[in-house]
Amino acid sequence: MCRVAAPVCALAATIVLATAAATSATAEPDAAALRSALSHALASRYVSPSRTGAIAVDLRTGDVVFQRHGSRSLAPASVEKLPVAYAALRILGPSYRFRTQVVGTGDRVGSTWRGNLYLVGTGDPTLERRDLGSLARHVARWGIRRVSGSVVADEHYYDTRRGAPGWKRSFLGIESRPLSALALQGVRIPGLNSSARVTGGAFRAALGRAGISVARPTGYGRAPGGGLPLAVDYSRTLADIVEEMDHESDNFVAEMLLKQLGAVETGHGTTAAGSAVVTSELERAGVPLAGVRIVDGSGLSLEDRLTPRALVALLLAAERDPGIRGPFLASLAVAGLSGTMRDRLQRRPARGQVIAKTGTTNEASALAGFVRRRYAFAVVQNGSPVAWWSARAVQDRFVTALVRAG
């Protein structure tokens, strides 16, 4: 039973049923010419045809205009971020903001806080030094000039797993910072488990700049109940965070969003919980889940699998959802102009006419998005390794053919 709006269900059904129509010998000549052009675009001596899946859907009619291995289960690379963006915008909402809080345990006597200050993180992936400075200044406005205890860093909103299932060991620290509910941008992390301590130390330094001395070294632990909230910092909106994540293909942000979905929806800030939430949201949207396996948020996991058919169904669901359509489309990079598409398709007719999410790992190359107001598409190519330069050329030819047809 489909639990979303009827138009979305109908579109998902169209993707299932339209293959025969799209390959019919009685198709209109223009449709046949487009299929021929798209088939020719996919030809590459360096990328295996059997490990390539592609699909294109006409946005005006919902008809599949081309499909090859559309239901093939393939490693998605960073187009994995599209399901995470969709689920986060749907569940948390575009205006959602992460929160970082300072909680005091003890009491104030004159200008001295007798006790500890807990810096409590709830997963803000964009936390910066200036945010810690703002928190410190808010604490100072209470008239506090000395803390007799410690600054204690609390990252317990998420679990302590720093990477995700299926990651190569080399990914941590290179492809993504270690995952923590209390992590600071722009600082060097000396060890996989030191994000919270480093952030706590940076907050202690910010307190010093705000005129507050702290007697004891920075600690690590869980804030007890009943503490006094002294300051709170809110992140930028989720719409802004998702846009930056997809434009720059930020692996760390994607993984943090996945854990946040788990924490908010299930009370468990884990990758596994977040993956289950995303999968459930795709099911609610009518996305066909055969061959789909969400294991992490970034697409780095060797265990992730998506199908071109599922990707296009997801794109159609997002494009037709008035609550998230704007921020979801804004998160896609523009050909020749922005994000990871800045250096691709720079010439007419494709420049500015394609918005998409890219994906590249050693094993996969992918592109999924829209030819403006006319087509939704997905191309996913796998290899051992994949010849990414040839794969990108295939993708660019494919979408250029759609631009010319549109």
3D architecture notes:
β1 (52-58) and β2 form a beta hairpin. With 406 residues, the chain is α/β, with parallel strands linked by helices. Strands 3, 4, 5, 6, 7, 8 and 9 form a seven-stranded mixed β-sheet that branches. A six-stranded antiparallel β-sheet has the order 2-1-13-12-11-10, with helices on both faces. The protein has helices spanning 6-17, 19-22, 29-41, 81-91, 129-140, 195-209, 238-248, 251-266, 271-284, 308-319, 325-330, 388-405; strands spanning 52-58, 64-68, 99-109, 112-121, 146-147, 151-154, 213-214, 219-220, 228-234, 333-334, 354-360, 364-371, 375-382. Mean pLDDT is 93; it is low at 1-7 and 16-27. The protein folds into two domains: 6-94 and 240-405, 3-Layer(aba) Sandwich (Beta-lactamase); 99-235, D-Ala-D-Ala carboxypeptidase C, peptidase S13 (D-tyrosyl-trna(Tyr) Deacylase, Chain: A, 3-Layer(bba) Sandwich), CATH 3.50.80.20.
Radius of gyration: 24 Å
Q: Give the % helix.
A: 25-40%
CATH topology label of the largest domain: Beta-lactamase
Overall pLDDT confidence: 93
Order of secondary-structure elements: HHHEEHEEHEEHEEEHHHHHEEEEH
- Tell me about the biggest sheet? 7 strands, mixed
Question: What is the number of independent domains?
Answer: 2
What is the 3D shape?
A: elongated
Summing up helix and strand content along with how strands pair, one would put the structural category as alpha/beta
CATH architecture of the largest domain: 3-Layer(aba) Sandwich
Question: Mind telling me the CATH superfamily name of the largest domain?
Answer: DD-peptidase/beta-lactamase superfamily
